[in-house]
Amino acid sequence: MHYLIALKLNQPVQSALVDQSGWWAMDEGIEVVIFDCQVPCWNKPRRVVGIRQKTDESPKSKANNFSVCK
Predict the structure, then answer these.
(1) 7-52 pLDDT tens trace
(2) CA-to-CA separations, 15 to 12, 26, 37, 57, 61, in angstroms, rounded
(3) How much is the pTM?
(4) Quick check: 30 and 22 in contact, CB under 8 A?
């Protein structure tokens, strides 16, 4: 892997995430999926790692403040 960035959850990326199956449970209420994604403004497909956190299972969670770099 040459680089890592956080993607803005725009409509093409959000649609690609919604279509994904095979989410892996990493911890209670946290799931991860890895897939290749091609959106109109990219010149080639990119590998995307989606992370989601179920807020109903973790009342203190704040999805907008989720950070992978602590």
Answers:
(1) 888 888 889 998 899 999 999 899 999 999 998 888 999 999 999 8
(2) 5, 22, 10, 24, 23
(3) 0.68
(4) no
51: which strand partners? 32
Which amino acid is located at 14 in the chain? Q
Those residues whose C-beta lies under 8 Å from the C-beta of residue 53, and which sit 6 or more positions away, are 29, 30, 31, 61, 63, 66
How many Å apart are CA 32 and CA 30, to the nearest integer?
7
Residue 13 CB-density burial (10 A; 0-12 exposed, 13-18 middle, 19+ buried): middle
How many alpha carbons lie under 13 Å from residue 59 in its C-beta half-sphere?
A: 0
| CB neighbour list of residue 30: distance below 8 Å, 6 or more residues apart | 51, 52, 53, 54
